[in-house]
Amino acid sequence: MTSPQHFRHGTRIFSLATAFLTAALLMAGCGAGDGETGSSSASDSTLRVGSDLTYPPYTYLEDGQPAGFDPDFVDALGREIDREPQVQDIRFEQLIASLKSNRIDVIASALYITAERAQEVEYIPYFTTGNSIVVASDGEPLADAQDLCGLSVGVIKGGDIVQRLREDASAECEEAGEEPVDVSEFTTDPEATQALISGQVDAQVTDAAVAKEAVEKTSGQLTITSEALLYPIPVGLAVDKENTELAAEIRAGLKEMRDSGEYAELLDNYNLQEPDQARVDDILGS
Predict the structure, then answer these.
(1) What range defines the domain where residue 245 resides?
(2) pTM for this entry
(3) pLDDT per residue over 271-286, tens digit each?
(4) What backbone torsions phi and psi does residue 142 show, to the nearest 5 degrees?
């Protein structure tokens, strides 16, 4: 800035007061705009993405940069909708709160579609996955959820699997005269894996792709013993329910990715499948 001229004292005070008043009014105007419903994003040139970057192969850090399916997906989506993705590393259980407080525009973090979450967010389904049971290589082979009765099982905190095991699987255990599943929640999936390796839990139940990655990275210490996917479920991007403009923008971008073949290529690279809309409708009761 240029140096101020030497004005008379009274004129200078008046000018400063006017400047402060103008700045305050401008700031108030900006604040009102930030809370406007139906707005697309904090900036139409960027896309603030919330991901838990401890969840390979979906979201993780590689050489200090976001990597995995979700970062690859939002990069491709960003090109279609002409926005620059800015990925923020946020723990899984804090993602929806971050979205609702306008810290981020969209969640892209292998977020399972559930009726409970759908009361808080607007989903855009983008793939289907399920869970696998992981045990120590010398441990007892556990084929399905019924085999978990009475055992301690490590899971990621805030995941849909918590309710599945504590309510659905445990109810079946008790009906069969067995002890319920003892569910231990961990802030990150690698923490649950480490608990399994150290013997703190008997098994880990996690997303099938994450389980495969964990087995490969632990050099023979772990194995997947489930015979089929547990609780197959569609996964969705999530935006604030009031941000209808951004939801429409993302859906249009996803259609462009389908039409170009880039979407199918991404799914194939990560051994994932497209979401079944009938299954989504069934979950959401629509």
Answers:
(1) 46-129+233-284
(2) 0.70
(3) 788 999 999 999 999 7
(4) -115, 115
